[in-house]
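I keep forgetting this: the sequence line spells out the residues, with the fold written below as integer tokens. I include a record here:
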Amino acid sequence: MTASSLYLGLMSGTSLDGVDAVLADFASARPTVLACVSLPYPDSLRSAVLALQPRGDNELDRAARLGRELAQLYAQAVHATLAAAGVSANQVAALGCHGQTVRHAPHAGYTIQLGDLALLAELTGVDTIGDFRRRDLAAGGQGAPLVPAAHQAWFAHPTQARAVLNLGGIGNLTRLDPALPVMGFDTGPGNMLLDAWIGQHRPGQRFDANGEWAASGQCLPALLAELLTEPYFACPPPKSTGRDLFSLDWLQPRLAAYPGLAAADVQRTLLALTVHSVADAVRQHAPATRALYVCGGGALNPLLMAELAAALPDCAVATTDALGIPAMQVEALAFAWLARQYCLRQPGNVPAVTGAQGERVLGALYPR
């Protein structure tokens, strides 16, 4: 184990549940995770992120203060991860930090991830690399999704057509078919609408544990059909989306035509929306897929996983644990990988995925 092969990755996604940190050794082709830590977002921090999603007053001050607060939580995650591994900061080559997305508007040429990277470098004593998305945007891409490049490096098979599905707040799919170029795109909502709906109707619950509330309801076919008319689903890749589109503000007008619906039935229908949008994406863009490997929080929802398997009967559905990387470590590990790509001055994007004009080295460095 050498200092140059150790990298940290930090991921805080659209689910707004917290930050995941991993320390990995990249001495071999398949990285070895040495330690991982997850720290939940305090309610106040989560509320502050949500408050910045719509346009509002005093945004610059609120964003700057939130960026500092995020950096402090990220630093706690870094120190906890290093302690768990028994590794000192000066043994780590670099850390990659995704930051917290508050706006994603590739159609307007920008995306915003908060997190004071200079403060994070100061607090951790580790070379800090972040701002990964904007270089791809500058090259004409969507700036997302970025993890398909890591999926390709770790999960591609020489003969089997596979796909990797990350089910965080948003679902994103990576096609790994040896007969075709790598493809990746956001399929639509993953857990985002499910989390928002249960949070509205069951205060204090940030997510539907094991899909139990959804399981108590029934899917409403007419409502599901209405939700699936959203134009985003029919858009061809490259494409990416986020909370800017799929929020309760998107959902409520569509519910207005169906007064009196049971809240649990809506939850079950939202789960079906995630399943159908993913299954439709696989059938349309990766029809040869025979194995779908799922990561992210949705992989822990047995109802969601069972429904995916039922919707894709010709495809084995499992978590990425089966490929040697636990489902809850994949995304943070991907940003450790992106930090390494930056240090090696190697590209971190896949132009066929993001739509960029070519491969680019992604990120910006804040030295320790």
The domain at 148-323 is CATH 3.30.420.40 (Nucleotidyltransferase; domain 5). The mean pLDDT is 95. Residues 59-85 form the longest helix (27 residues).
